[in-house]
Amino acid sequence: MIELKITLDGQTQMSRQLMVSSAALADFTIPLRAAAELMQKTFQLNFDSRGDMFGGWSPRTRSYPWPLLEKTGAMRKAFFTRIEGNTAVLGNSTSYFKYHQLGTRNMPQRLMMKLDNERKALVVKIFQQHLLDSMKAFK
């Protein structure tokens, strides 16, 4: 039995146990990278849509000449992926990201990272295809 676990910025988003022979799988790097790439594209699309992928971002209370959450572009560029064994870690390296992602008493939550049901289904398909390909290689 193999466990698939996806964590975004320290919070477990999905955990599944897969009933397959571990001998059929030597390395999860390929599907982990594919799933991480999918999620990174999703985060950028969410920025492009001003948060519409995950419910939208609350408007500012004052007007500024730059797009919401993009004064310098640093936070948008700071998303990262790290593959550690059979785990993909996705996050944002800016110190202030968590305040926007989670919200505060004085600032509304503006979700930038989320593993929604549509993306969960796509991640599962990535792993299913990897399992099929791996099992075909052992025939």
Q: Which keywords apply here?
A:
139 residues, single chain, alpha+beta, elongated
Structure description:
With 139 residues, the chain is an alpha+beta fold. The chain has one domain. Helices cover 37% and strands 19% of the residues. It has four helices and four strands, in the order ββααββαα. The chain has helices at 29-48, 74-77, 97-102, 117-137; strands at residues 2-8, 11-18, 79-84, 87-92. The longest helix has 21 residues, at 117-137.
- Round the Cα radius of gyration to an integer and report it: 17 Å
Major sheet summary line = 4 strands, mixed
Low-confidence stretches: none
Structural class: alpha+beta
Q: What's the order of the H and E elements?
A: EEHHEEHH
Tally the beta strands.
Answer: 4
Helices, by number, come to 4
Quote the beta fraction.
Answer: 15-25%
- Bin the helical content: 25-40%
Choose one word for the global shape.
elongated
Q: Quick check: average pLDDT?
A: 86
Give the strand order, joined by hyphens, for the main sheet. Answer: 2-1-4-3
Number of domains: 1
- The CA-CA distance between the termini, in Å, is 20 Å
Question: What is the element layout, followed by pairings?
Answer:
Blueprint: E1 2-8, E2 11-18, H1 29-48, H2 74-77, E3 79-84, E4 87-92, H3 97-102, H4 117-137
Parallel strand pairs: 1-4
Antiparallel strand pairs: 1-2, 3-4
